[in-house]
Specification:
By secondary structure, this protein is α/β, with parallel strands linked by helices. The strands form three sheets. The chain has an eight-stranded mixed beta sheet with strand order 8-21-20-19-9-16-18-17, sandwiched between helices. Strands 1, 2, 3, 4, 5, 6 and 7 form a seven-stranded antiparallel beta sheet that branches. Strands 10-15-14-13-12-11 form a six-stranded antiparallel beta sheet.
Length: about 900
């Protein structure tokens, strides 16, 4: 890389920083003038860009998306399909074959070279077609998941796809929103932004539109700016978009901030198998070349034979099988309303053995109903409902399900007119430390009130209560908490008329305790079956919730989650990492957790050797979603949760999740089949070729025959991605197991070698094909035996059942396998054999061929039974 190229990214980053800093130093009026922001004379709200202006800017600046590395186009996918290590090996083999022939003064074997080249083309074309289908499927699935931003366009606040934002757009931001680009705040109200993705800061940073900017401040310390890649934790604001896509600060340094967790265990395992196969080839080829050269005294033919063996040992179809299987898995999962954002996440989904989830909407109906509004003593109180209604209706942030339930009940009770009696003066937004939200209201008479709603403990701590009142309040709270109600408290404080009009958490003091509101979210009818189904499939469900113990325990008991052991957030903080790991081994319900505590618990479970999935849809779920091996969210989740997740559920239901897990395991199973068959088959071929090279006075097969055999075998494997998987295989999580692959290779591989050697004996001793005149018959015999047994092994070994059709092969696999077997027989028993320098076999050879195949099937079946008895597994 040249110095100019090496400096290109730092220069871009510096330029981006200078531009953003310059804008940060502008006054509010200068920003408004620079970006030509107009306001409605009536509502004072920004008018925003017109749709026509936005379209022109989108064409100029491009989509608001960050591209890491090269943009994936059809051309780049075609290049990647053709250029891979296995095709590279085949091309090297072609070149070695060509130049070796030239060096020896002989004409090149153009037929052999053509077959190798055809293998490269077939592998590349199939890989490209499957990659294109995979891309199209992923794009179609991705289009079902949209992150939007609230943008002022044509004088209205509209929800616009985030990728359509352009510089100059004015956006509204609230808790749960992702910052859609680099923005300069115009107005702010207690807005806190999580900047961990950029700075590593664990604590959200407060932003202010009118903040004073110092030249000494770093870019991320500038309080009136926010950046793509961060998200709003609490509060609300309006802001103008300064930069989008790769022009953002995040885009300028995206390569260094890439949060990609790297390859998972399965992907690393596939790569290690690929290296093993290539290493086997590197060792095998010189050995075969030397043995045949010394014993046959034909070094040029020995070299071509060794090269052909190298082709046979090259798993050039592995990328094809991987791509095809994952693509089909993604489409299959979408039919179960499970959308995969990253194909590599599919097998991790199947590997998952612990699911951590919140209860709301997953175990419950997500239809929260406000049923109780009670005073301190537990008596019904319309005044408490009214106070809660004012708080929920006038708060301007993200209205959650609880707020919507309050509003629905109040409107049902006819409290709508009460809103006209008040004017909102301000707000103190919710955050996870205070766990409450306040609005400041003014009556027509000029009185000002602070109306606060939040978690009971936090509300009691800011209320004026005597010891007796506090005891009564706690008794009332516990009563309804134990009954399974989600209980919040409401308090009010009248503010002095001359008190500062800027409101913050310090105003939440000396409150008059109004009472309680109790919500009920009934358990889903399907939750019991879903939890039991996950358990039956080896997935343990652990509930991590911010709710109180009474509510969570009530729900968990009804859906079958063990509540004998429970821990709260306070308990979690008292445990060290080892203690937390041990606690998570027996506890399935954790309550009153903060986002950081949820993430810490997920990590503790991972450290115990588990593959952890986390299902969440709220702002507080972003940290555990990122920490988990597989992050799962839902389509109606907040933006930051959807962005962090690997998998999106179109229906928030554990039943859907269970079905997706099964599809992930089927995908894992089919890839595993190909890998184990390929590794064991190649090991068996190595033994057979070495024995044949040492014993036979002539080459076991000519290069063109080996190449044709390998080409036919590749074709027979194309149906694997479509195959069915044993039901008992998908009943438990499947992890990548290198020991299992090596064990399978050493156990099954030699069986094919034994039958190859048996075929040699039949050809040599029974038919007497060991003279120079009958060598071509020997070749034809081993060609048809080798090809048919290689093709048959997949049909036999693809299931752990002795009854091969108890789990029937998929039609594409069965058709491909039978077609290859039929074609191999036709070639060997017809004049077509002469095109491969063989003599077609006499009909009498059909009898030993059938006997060898039947014996081979029987031997593999017996080996399968013995293997499963000894090792308790198969594929």
């Amino acid at each position: 890389m040249s110095i100019l190229k090496r400096r290109e990214r730092p220069l871009k980053k510096d330029l981006t920083e200078r531009k953003l800093k310059a804008t940060a130093k502008l006054s509010y009026r200068e920003v408004v003038d620079k970006y030509k922001i107009a306001f409605s004379s009536e509502t004072k709200e920004p008018l925003g860009l017109s749709q026509a202006q936005a379209a022109k800017r989108l064409e100029k600046f491009g989509e608001n998306a960050i591209t890491l590395g090269k943009h994936q186009t059809t051309a780049t996918r075609a290049f990647e399909a053709a250029v891979n290590p296995f095709n590279g090996v085949l091309i090297i083999i072609i070149l070695v074959s060509y130049f070796a022939s030239r060096f020896a003064g002989e004409s090149s074997d153009w037929v052999a070279i053509g077959i190798i080249f055809a293998m490269v083309v077939i592998s590349s074309v199939v890989s490209f077609v499957q990659s294109q289908r995979s891309h199209d499927a992923a794009a179609k699935l991705a289009s079902m998941i949209t992150n939007t931003a609230t943008v002022y366009r044509d004088g209205e606040a509209k929800e616009v796809p985030m990728h359509d934002l352009v510089p100059g757009d004015v956006v509204k931001l609230a808790a749960g929103d992702m910052i859609p680009g680099d923005v300069r705040f115009l107005t702010t109200k207690h807005i806190f932004v999580a900047q961990a993705a950029l700075t590593g800061e664990s604590v959200p940073v407060e932003k202010k539109a009118g903040a004073q900017i110092s030249d000494k401040d770093s870019l991320t310390d500038m309080r009136n700016l926010a950046f793509m890649g961060t998200n709003v934790v609490s509060g609300f604001a309006t802001a103008v978009v300064l930069e989008t896509g790769n022009d953002t600060y995040f885009g300028s340094m995206a390569k260094t901030l890439n949060n990609n967790k790297g390859k998972n265990a399965f992907e690393r395992g596939v790569a290690s198998v690929s290296r093993l196969l290539i290493q086997m080839m590197v060792v095998m080829v010189p050995l075969v070349f030397v043995i045949n050269g010394l014993l046959k005294a034909d070094w040029s033919m020995s070299l071509l034979f060794a090269i052909s063996v190298a082709v046979g040992l090259t798993p050039e179809m592995l990328p094809v099988i991987m791509t095809s299987t994952l693509a089909l898995g993604a489409v299959g999962m979408s039919k179960h309303k499970v959308i995969v954002k990253n194909l590599g996440a599919i097998q991790t989904f199947g590997e998952m053995d612990i699911l951590c989830t919140d209860k709301t909407g997953t175990l419950t109906e997500d239809k929260i109903i406000l049923e109780k509004y009670l005073d301190l003593n537990g008596d019904d109180s319309e005044a408490v409902l009214q106070a809660a209604y004012l708080n929920s209706a006038f708060q301007t942030g993200l209205k959650g399900l609880l707020d919507l339930a309050v509003i629905a009940r109040a409107e049902k009770n006819g409290l709508n007119p009460k809103l006209t009696e008040y004017e909102r003066l301000g707000e103190v937004p919710f955050d996870f430390m205070r766990r409450r939200l306040s609005v400041v209201l003014k009556t027509k008479a000029g009185k000002r009130f602070l109306v606060t709603k939040g978690a009971v403990e936090e509300m009691l701590s800011i209320s004026k209560l005597t010891k007796a009142q506090l005891a009564t309040a706690n008794k009332t709270y516990e009563k309804y908490n134990q009954k399974g109600f989600r209980v919040l408290a409401v308090a009010i404080r009248e503010l002095p008329k001359d008190e500062d009009s800027r409101f913050d958490p310090s105003d939440e003091r000396d409150m008059e305790f109004a009472g309680f509101i109790g919500f009920f979210d009934p358990p889903k009818d399907s939750a019991v079956q879903a939890v039991a189904g996950l358990k039956a499939h080896g997935v343990r469900t652990i509930v991590l919730t911010g709710d109180s113990l009474g509510v969570a325990k009530n729900v968990c008991e009804k859906v079958g989650i063990d509540t004998k052991h429970t821990l709260s957030g306070a308990d979690v903080d008292k445990l060290d990492d080892e203690g937390l790991k041990n606690a998570a081994a027996e506890c399935e319900l954790f309550v009153k957790l903060s986002p950081a505590q949820k993430a810490r618990l997920v990590k503790a479970i991972q450290d115990a050797g588990h593959t952890v999935g986390y299902l969440g849809d709220g702002i507080n779920d972003a940290p555990p979603l990122h920490q988990a091996d597989i992050g799962i969210s839902v389509d109606n989740a907040v933006d930051i949760a959807k962005e962090t997740a690997n998998i999106i559920l179109l229906k928030k239901d554990l039943t859907v999740l269970d079905e997706g897990v099964m599809e992930g395991r089927r995908t894992f199973g089919n890839v595993s089949k190909y890998i184990k068959m390929t590794v064991s088959g190649n090991f068996g071929n190595m033994i057979s070729v070495l024995v044949a090279s040492a014993v036979l006075p002539f080459l076991p097969m000519l290069p063109i025959q080996i190449l044709t055999q390998n080409l036919l075998y590749d074709v027979s494997q194309l149906g694997i991605p479509f195959d069915n998987v044993d039901e008992d295989y998908i009943k438990k999580p499947r992890k990548w197991d290198p020991k299992s692959i090596r064990r399978f290779m050493f156990f099954i591989g030699p069986i094919s070698s034994i039958f190859d050697i048996a075929a040699f004996a039949v050809l040599w001793f029974v038919f007497g094909w060991h003279t120079e005149a009958t060598t071509s018959l020997f070749w034809a015999g081993w060609f048809v035996v080798g090809t048919t047994t290689q093709a048959l092994i997949m049909l036999i070994a693809r299931t752990n059942k002795t009854n091969l059709f108890k789990t029937p092969p998929a039609k594409p696999l069965l058709l491909a396998t039978l077609s290859v077997i039929a074609l191999a027989i036709i070639i060997a028993f017809s004049p077509i054999a002469e095109a491969l320098q063989m003599t077609h076999l006499p009909p009498i050879f059909a009898l030993p061929l059938v006997l060898i195949l039947l014996a081979y099937i029987g031997a593999v079946q017996l080996a399968k039974v013995f293997y499963q008895r000894v090792f308790k597994s198969w594929l």
